[in-house]
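Supplementary notes for students who missed Thursday's class. We covered one full example, reproduced here. Read the sequence, then the structure, then the short commentary at the end.
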Amino acid sequence: MPESLQQFFEARHQSVRKAREFATRALEGWGLTSRTEDIRLCVSELATNAVLHGTARGHGFLVRLDIDDNCVRLEVHDSRRRQPVVRELTATEISGRGLTLVAALSDEWGVKDRTPLGKFVWSCFKTAGDAAHPISSSGPDRDDRPVEVR
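Structure (token representation):
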């Protein structure tokens, strides 16, 4: 079993659904049951942010999932270094809650610059070891090789 799965997506609105489906297949393949809906929602939010704010014209984004004995790590790589912002919103605003949801649903999250290749937003979800086929990984604090996102 691979240590991680990743897939590249074009910067189009339809890609958000495809990214969510990719994550669902990966989680099912790993036998993960406890955090699937939280992870799927965060994939949707981070992929939407990549499409709307994180990709330069002609570029796309990459979704990467890693699993180990007690954590699923989600990363969404995009081509812009623009830092996402968690904003305070009023009850009547209809958008802008994505990162607030990611912060609420994940156990940990953050942003890492990938100069000159853009950035990635990551989140970790503790799984209490319920994956049927956990893989070894260096965990949520590992320093990944740069991934070029076009």
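Commentary. The longest helix spans residues 36-54. Strands lie at 4-10, 60-67, 71-78, 108-113, 119-126. If anything here is unclear, bring it to office hours.
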